[in-house]
Every structure is written in C-alpha cells, then in structure tokens.
Specification:
Elements (H helix, E strand, L loop, with lengths): L8 E4 L19 H8 L1 E6 L2 E2 L3 E3 L5 E2 L1 H12 L3 E6 L5 H6 L5 E7 L2 H4 L2 E10 L1 E5 L15 E5 L3 H8 L3 E5 L2 H9 L5 E5 H11 L4 E4 L6 E8 L3 H17 L1 H9 L6
Parallel strand pairs: 1-6, 2-6, 2-7, 10-11, 10-12
Antiparallel strand pairs: 3-4, 4-5, 7-14, 8-14, 9-12, 9-13
Helix pairs in contact: 2-8
C-alpha cells in the first residue's frame, strides 16, 4: 500500500483523563470556528497506534486514513493541521480540557459519547469482529467465555467484552494487540474488522475471524466540543463535498484499498 508522505506536524501527549470520566463537561465558550480561523490551525487528536487509519511512519510522521481525512477537511475550511497523539482511554477528556480541537481517530459514534461531544460524520463504517489464530477452536461468542480476550483500552470493545463477562486483557493499541495474539498471550482479540484485517495482512499473520452476530455495523465520527454549530456545519459540509467530488474515494483507496463509507 502506498504511504502518503504529506508533511503534518505531530506532537506527542500523555492522556490524563480516563474515558470513564465522560461526566466531565466542557467549559462554556464562544463559537470556535471564528477562533480557529484567527489562529489558522486546528489541532486534531488520535492515538497514532491504529494502522492503517493512523500510525507513526518510519520518518516519524503521523500518517494514515484519519490524518488524511482531517487534513483535507481543514484545507477546505482554510485551516492548517496539527496532529496530536494521545492515549485513547483519555482522548475525550483531553478534548474537553481544550488540549486539541477535534478527535479524528476512528472514534465510534455512541449515544454515551454523544452526550458530551458532538460528532461530524460518520466518515466510514465498520463492524466488530473477533480474531484468533488458526486452529484455536474459537468460532462463536460462547467460545470466548473461558479464554483470554484482548482489547484496546478505552475502546467500545472493552466495555462490550467486560459486559459479556469475558477474561479481558487491555492494551494500548492495535499493534500491541496483534502481537499479543501472535505470541499466544491472548487467545482472541476484539477489534473493528477493517483495521484488524488490514494490519494482520500487513504483518503477514495468519488468522481466523468471525463477526459479532449481535452488533450492527457502526459509524466512525469526528468528535468536537459541544455548542459549536458553525464549526460542526463547516466540517460536515467539507466532508460531504469530499465524498461528492471523489476526494474521499481517492484517500480511502490509498490507505484502505477500497471505499469504506
């Protein structure tokens, strides 16, 4: 897969808020679109550990589908892009604390999250899947009850797996999750299907998978702070235009290999 080498500034941050802290409310502020245009730059956050959607390249740049989408949206509303990487389990807390201006990191749109942030999008659709090594004998949700299940800390899959009562082990990102599966430290992992399939193939790992039969496909959205209707409308208009004029398809084919709307 061709890797896009567009220059984007990256700053590494430590997550200081847990996803469980969704009760935190953002401070009241004026509409942010005008403020961002005065500054000329929007800071967008992601984990930097979710290839091929967002990851750190060999040249120490944060690249992937998410940065490309966020950068194109910003270009269309007249803003430069600064990328911030941070721990996923504290990423919403960082947004509410004004450490960045948006989250463009493959965040699943959920009712719980929508109570504290607004979403632009969805900008792609995926589903939950379970991955194992060949010959594991794990082929259904019932088979997960007595095995070690790996998930990424702070993702919706973590909450789902814990609600199921599985023996859950949490990790920082998809690369670590895949390595734990390959080395046999977990028996199965739960992840968005598209990202995991592409990463497994990229690493040459053999695997078996099955989709979660109980969960419908879900959309990934761009999170911004609430009470910013002008910013939300401008970003949504830019995203819609990208999807109409073919730019979105070009980006998706470059990083994912197909249109994933």
């Amino acid at each position: 897969m061709t890797k896009r080498r567009t220059f984007i500034k990256s700053a590494v941050m430590a997550g200081s808020f847990a996803l469980a802290g969704l009760s935190i409310t953002a401070p009241l502020a004026a509409e942010e679109l005008e403020t961002l245009k005065e500054k000329g730059v929007m800071r967008i956050a992601m984990s930097g550990a979710y290839p091929p959607f967002n990851f750190v390249s060999d040249t120490n740049e944060v690249v992937g589908f998410d940065p490309a989408i966020g950068t194109e949206i910003n270009n269309r509303i007249g803003l430069e892009t600064e990328i911030v990487t941070t721990a996923w389990d504290g990423i919403i807390g960082g947004l509410l604390a004004n450490k960045y201006d948006a989250i463009v990191g493959s965040m699943t749109i959920t009712d719980e999250r929508a109570e504290v942030v607004d979403f632009v999008g969805p900008y792609y659709t995926t589903g939950r899947a379970i991955f194992t090594k060949p010959g594991s004998g794990i082929s259904s949700l019932a088979d997960l009850e007595d095995v070690r299940v790996g998930v990424t800390l702070g993702e919706t899959h973590e909450e789902w797996a814990k609600d199921k009562g599985y023996k859950v082990r949490t990790y920082k990102g998809l690369p670590e999750l895949l390595l734990e599966l390959e080395n046999g430290r977990v028996d199965a992992i739960v992840n968005d299907s598209i990202a995991a399939i592409l990463a497994l193939k990229e690493n040459g790992y053999e695997y078996e998978m099955f989709n979660d039969p109980e969960t419908e496909p879900f959309g990934a959205g761009i999170a911004i702070r609430k009470n910013n209707p002008e910013l939300k409308a401008a970003m949504q208009e830019a995203l819609d235009a990208m999807m109409e004029d073919g730019t979105y398809t070009t980006i998706a084919e470059e990083w994912i290999g197909e249109d994933i709307r």
